[in-house]
Write a structure and sequence with these properties.
By secondary structure, the protein is α/β, with parallel strands linked by helices. About 40% of the residues lie in helices and about 20% in strands. A 7-stranded mixed β-sheet has the order 14-15-16-13-12-17-18, with helices on both faces. Bound molecules: 1,4-dihydronicotinamide adenine dinucleotide and magnesium ion. The site of magnesium ion has 3 residues, from loops.
Length: about 500
């Protein structure tokens, strides 16, 4: 099928940003990479080059870490009151809001995602994150401690201090929002940062960098170095003067980060892959469950770490669920993400397109039934059809591996015992999210306790909120982002004991 994809016109602000010569942000200044090298940024819907950004590497990471260290140890940031820090973090949320439409357009263009989703989820989620985290600057309290040997002559307490220079390495599936999830709490805590965006989607982070400068953050507090994982990312994760690295991406690279961090035992937090189950009980509101589980996998072209990629339907409703999700897939409007009528854009890159089509091929070979989709869409850009694979089983590669595309594997189950349900839900090396679809709240909450995953959704999926701790069990990661829990990532606890003599 020959489908010509045209890029819809961008607004004036996004157009002006695209026309700029892109630089990296080090110590408050926009500079080229030391090597002078750049790499091309692509529109994944048309495969057109939409810009070039600096290919930062070890030399640039070194300069950025030096700037972050200086800003952490001395100068206006080190002396800033929690109140003023809070105001700056809040102001950055306001600036994101003022430029929301422009940022949504850049995100849709660079990542391929539908612009309407980019505006209401990615950009709004980023605004909300800064506004929520701003409050933490003034709430980072220690505790007074009653020591067990106290004879009344001890005063013991804890202090909560910023962890220091933080390296943050983020992926391409929610480029701006991942930057916000990382930057907002680290800034609220008083850390300084070197951020490395994903090479597939560097644009929104660079525009964000301009807003960080405009907000008035002192030089060196946030440094943004675009570059590749194997060069800039690796240099950041092994850097001896980085106190902590926060990473979101593949489980494979997560393990490399852990090894790289061993040199100076920097603190590590990881948000990694998933193969999240969505479990539909016979008593579920099927209209809600079908629409919800379809969205759980097709949203963001299936490129969500929490995507509901293993769909389990009780055998009494299995046919209805398969038919219903397939009907939802057929309703999806595929096209350029910048077209407001589109709700499924291209995958982010050729690499991702090859990965997903490879899994479609392997699913077929292993005997999955392709109920709908299963093919690439058009002959330009990285589109694949939303796909429902039925009659799948636990041994298939498509069921065991994170596909990271709009491909759901449906399995029927006939157990009524919750332990048996939990067993198949937990039959994965991952543990990021699970969703439970039922009208029986007792069943839902009991099952929530039995599933080994960091986040459980009841009658919804892909839920996230700045106040709701988020992270994984098992190989889905270490630590929790958001809520008060994220402050553990960006602070150290210092214990003080005084003998009152
Ligand atoms: P990736 O894990 O290679 O990339 C994520 C980030 O890590 C990027 O900024 C990249 O430059 C950086 N990176 C890569 N190699 C590195 C290294 N050796 N040291 C330090 N940083 C490094 O993910 P990729 O290759 O883009 O996607 C592969 C698969 O990973 C996807 O198909 C998906 O299954 C999974 N993934 C999961 C994500 C999540 O949200 N949990 C996000 C992106 C990918
Ligand atoms: Mg990779």
């Amino acid at each position: 099928m020959n489908i010509a994809i045209r890029r819809p016109t961008l607004g004036p602000d996004a157009t002006a940003f695209l026309a700029k010569e892109h630089k990296i942000l080090i110590d408050g200044k926009w500079v080229a990479a030391q090597s002078g090298q750049t790499f091309a940024v692509e529109d994944p819907a048309t495969q057109e080059v939409i810009g070039h950004v600096p290919a930062g590497d070890k030399a640039d990471i070194d300069l950025a870490v030096k700037a972050a260290r200086r800003a952490f140890e001395s100068g206006p940031w080190a002396r800033m009151t929690p109140r003023d820090r809070s105001r700056l973090v809040w102001k950055l949320g306001d600036l994101l809001e003022q430029h929301a439409d422009e940022l949504a357009e850049l995100e849709a263009l660079d990542n391929g995602k539908p612009v309407t989703n980019a505006r209401k989820d990615d950009v709004q989620g980023s605004i909300d994150m800064f506004h929520y985290m701003a409050g933490w600057s003034t709430r980072l309290n220690g505790e007074t401690i009653t020591v067990s040997k106290s004879d009344g002559n001890w005063h013991a307490y804890t202090l909560r201090e910023p962890v220091g220079v933080v390296g943050q390495i983020i992926p391409w599936n929610f480029p701006l929002m991942m930057a916000a999830w990382k930057l907002a709490p680290a800034l609220a805590a008083g850390c300084t940062i070197v951020l490395k965006p994903a090479e597939q989607t560097p644009l929104s982070a660079l525009r964000f960098g301009e807003l960080i400068v405009e907000a008035g953050f002192p030089a060196g507090v946030v440094n943004i170095v675009t570059g590749f994982g194997e060069t800039a990312g690796a240099a950041l994760s092994e850097h001896p003067d980085v106190d902590k690295v926060a990473f979101t991406g593949s489980t494979e690279v997560g393990k490399l980060i852990v090894k790289a961090a061993a040199g100076n035992l920097k603190r590590v937090s990881l948000e990694l892959g998933g193969k999240s189950p969505a479990i539909v009980f016979p008593d579920a509101d099927l209209d809600v469950a079908i629409a919800g589980t379809a969205d759980a996998i097709f949203y963001n072209q299936g490129q969500c770490c929490t995507a509901g990629s293993r769909l389990f339907a009780h055998k009494s409703i299995y046919d209805k669920v398969v038919e219903g999700v397939a009907a939802e897939a057929k309703k999806v409007r595929i096209g350029h993400g910048l077209d407001p009528k589109v709700n499924l854009g291209p995958l982010v890159s050729k690499e991702q397109h090859d990965r997903v089509t490879g899994f479609l091929e392997s699913g077929r070979k292993e005997g999955a039934e392709v109920v709908t989709g299963g093919k690439v869409h058009g002959n330009q850009g990285y589109f694949v059809e939303p796909t429902v694979l039925a009659k799948t089983n636990r041994d298939m590669r498509v069921v065991r591996n994170e596909i990271f595309g709009p491909v759901v594997c449906v399995q029927a189950y006939d157990d009524d015992d919750l332990d048996a349900v939990a067993k198949f839900a937990n039959d994965t090396e991952y543990g990021l999210q699970a969703s439970i679809w039922t009208r029986n709240l007792k069943v839902a909450h009991l099952l929530a306790r039995k599933i080994k995953a960091g986040t459980i959704c009841i009658n919804t999926h892909n839920f996230g909120d700045p106040a709701w701790p988020f992270g994984g069990y098992k190989q889905s990661g270490w630590g929790r982002e958001m809520g008060k829990e994220v402050m553990e990532h960006y602070t150290e606890v210092k214990s003080v004991a005084a003998k009152l003599v």
